[in-house]
Amino acid sequence: MMESAEVGGARDRRGSIVCIVGARPNFMKMAPLIRAFGSEPGLPAAVLVHTGQHYDFAMSDALFRDLELPVPDLNLEVGSATHAVQTAEVMKRIEPVLDDLQPSCVVVVGDVNSTLAVALVASKKGIPVAHVEAGLRSHDRTMPEEVNRLLTDQLSDLLYTTERTAADNLAREGVPRERVHFVGNVMIDSLLQHVSRAPTAAATLARAGVRGGIALEPPGFGVATLHRPSNVDDRAALEESLEIVGDVARHLPVVWPMHPRTRANVEKFRLQRLVENPRIVLLPPQGYLEMLGLLSAAKVVLTDSGGIQEETTALSVPCLTMRENTERPITIAEGTNLLVGRDRARIVAAVEDILASGGKRGRRPELWDGGAAPRIAKHLASWLVSRESRPAEAIA
Ligand code: UD1
């Protein structure tokens, strides 16, 4: 990836659309947008900036490859740090880039620290901000992502939403209605585009060179992913989370691609014994396609990820979300999701039910149809044109 702090030919790229990615869940949202922007006549060129919040090959480069994302025009290489330092570093490093490019707008996705940091800098410079996946609320401000969502939405000129409840959340926070556009879910654009290319679970387990064979025998396997601070940063919470995975593994083998944050904490708190279990197949973070293959074939998914709640709903695979709340209520109302917190008895009962009856199958929510990114590109193109034709004093 490019390491310079300047975008090559910045002068020629003035007025472009600056597209920001930072962390793993951003990549599958941005990939279909970059593609749609490229094929929408009337839109300026897109410049892709990676903040470098995620930097491991498995957390970043591998996903670029799988998603056919172009190499970023610029990598700000902020890396890991406390929230304050990481957010501040993104702000400091994006400012000169925006000054050089004078973009016609900045597009941010999701709810990570990079999303808020860039929205804040752009907004103060009078650069329009488009937020994709706006208006989702867990109503839990102890989650860093909730703070990022609230503030990014306050700063955004265009708020593209994935489900209708988002508009109600935004209305309650005083966001003008005309800024909010229900377009569907770009993450599902990526899923529908790539799922047929996903390797089988058998291939992924074989390639990972693990004792994955057990997962391929009846009754099949579960997939676990856990990385939220509330489940993994505190010793007691992490111990409880690991015990829950152990409970589930008594019913069916669990394949667990472990996030680096979780792995580091398992070691720090010396809890390795809880995952040294022949029925828990630990894997490093997986590629996007491998993950789609594993999720599609799973009997049940145990997660605290936002994106996986949506992907399992789109794939019609039962999902048990180890959180007390979700910012994606449509996955519960219409999809396959069930909130279970860290309630061990409830989780075991839910797994038993899924193994006996197949669990929730749900239906795919409105506009989760693979067409969200082209809808955004079309809307953005006409919005930019209408903005240009307005008299200067009318432009906020
Ligand atoms: C971030 C996002 C979260 C998202 C998650 C997906 C915020 C506030 N959080 O959380 O919303 O669901 O990404 O993964 O933006 N690390 C590595 N290699 C990497 C990246 C991280 O080893 O490439 C380790 C570092 O030890 C780091 C820790 O993981 O300190 C946490 O990374 P960080 O980016 O701070 O947050 P995530 O937990 O990944």
Please describe what this structure looks like.
The structure is a single chain. The protein is an alpha/beta fold and about 400 residues long. Helices cover about 45% and strands about 15% of the residues. The chain has helices at about 25-40, 55-65, 85-100, 115-125, 145-155, 165-170, 185-195, 200-205, 230, 235-250, 260-270, 290-295, 305-315, 330-335, 345-355, 370-390, and strands at about 15-20, 45-50, 75, 105-110, 130, 160, 180, 220-225, 255, 280-285, 300-305, 320, 335-340. Strands 3-2-1-4-5-6-7 form a seven-stranded parallel β-sheet, sandwiched between helices. Helix 4 (about 115-125) links the parallel strand 4 and strand 5 (about 130). The protein binds uridine-diphosphate-N-acetylglucosamine. Uridine-diphosphate-N-acetylglucosamine (UD1) binds near residues 59 and 112.
Supply database-style keywords.
396 residues; alpha/beta; seven-stranded parallel sheet; six-stranded parallel sheet; binds uridine-diphosphate-N-acetylglucosamine
In summary, what is this structure?
The protein is of the alpha/beta class and 396 residues long. The protein has helices spanning 24-38, 57-67, 83-101, 113-124, 144-155, 165-172, 186-194, 201-207, 229-232, 235-251, 260-268, 288-297, 306-315, 330-333, 344-357, 372-389; strands at 17-21, 46-50, 74-75, 105-109, 129-132, 158-161, 180-182, 222-225, 254-257, 280-283, 300-303, 319-321, 337-339. Helices cover 45% and strands 13% of the residues.
